Amino acid sequence: MEQLNHLVFLWINATPASPHALISLAAFLANDLIIIVPLLIVGLWLWGQRDQIGQQRELVSKTTIALLFAMTTAKTLSMLFPHARPFVEGFGYNFLHHAPDDSFPSDHGTAIFTFALSFLFWHRIWSGALLMVTAIAIAWSRIYLGIHWPLDMLGGLLVGMLGCLFAQLVWNLFGEQINALMCKVYRFGFAFPIRKGWVQN
Asked: What is the pTM of this model?
């Protein structure tokens, strides 16, 4: 498995001969594109058509549970099964500064794959597919720039699946209570902008 991991990494990893424009694009994907996760979570909770806002907030709640579980699981796995990054092992080429911490599973990969799977399972096929393409682009970029192994990203995908499964189980048991509590806290904290009509009730 480790040999396959190294082989696929070398197939993807950029070299000094790679186009500078492609390396710059990969750096944008690796560093900045993850911002869509908090932006979409906030946007879907605060704004939307009145007849759809309830479904949007259910999606946000389930996605948040999935993300919390997945990221906690990823941190636990990284402590239990430490794995050095490629540049720490002196393997391949590195084009992005990163702390030499454990790489498996990828935090970026876990977050974006969990997010994409949430939309695929609980929103619409087209939105989930679009976010999955985004997740794959981010995963590719971080391998391309030499800061992650392919298995780090596969690990993120699998942990994301577990996160979504956990969130659905929790929602089946406590969904109504969770939704009522989150809406109560939201309406208390955002009472002023709700009255002004800046955000949905």
From this structure: 0.92
